[in-house]
Amino acid sequence: MKVAAYRLNEVWPRTQNLPALLAYVEQQLGSLPPNADAQLLDLFEHIVVSDFGRFRLSAVVGGPGAAGMPRVDPEVIAYAQLSGCIEGSVTFNPWHESVTLDAFSALLLPLLDGCHTQDELLEVIADAVAEGRLGFLRDDRPITDRAELGRVGVLHLHRVLESLLA
Question: Where is the PKMT C-terminal winged helix domain (predicted)?
């Protein structure tokens, strides 16, 4: 069952249904162990009861879109747009947890439609910093070094994606 646990961790925050998980285990091991269905159901039960994981009745498919372009469900974007998709607006992630948008999330959310690469999203952040709409501080001082701005921009992009996709 270690192979199954590894696979569940690998696909998180997306989900993996039982038939697909069984197929993965079989592919990795060459054959399924006896009573694999029952063992996996026991594993799922243990994970959920121990509060190590969650289950859903429908699949979570968020994440990279075509060619690794970040994508959230259109409903997530639409819900935030009801309140203007501004800092302080609230939306949700695929696990139905509320997510309050900060300035970076509000800027990027409309672009997380699977049509923009991570590099394009980083350009949007860089433009917002150059225009003074966003900024980064280190030790209460603005970061102005271009390389450092790029590194911090990547960290903020990943934080936004993690909050909206997890």
Answer: 76-164
Q: What angle do CA 8, 9, 13 make, to 5 degrees?
A: 90
- Threshold 0.90, pTM exceeds: no
Q: In three state form, how does the secondary structure of the chain look?
A: CHHHHHHHHHHCCCCCCHHHHHHHHHHHHCCCCCCHHHHHHHHHHHHHHCCCCCCCCCCCCCEECHHHCEECCHHHHHHHHCCCCCCCCEEECCCCCEEECCHHHHHHHHHCECCCCHHHHHHHHHHHHHCCCCCCEECCEECCCHHHHHHHHHHHHHHHHHHHHC
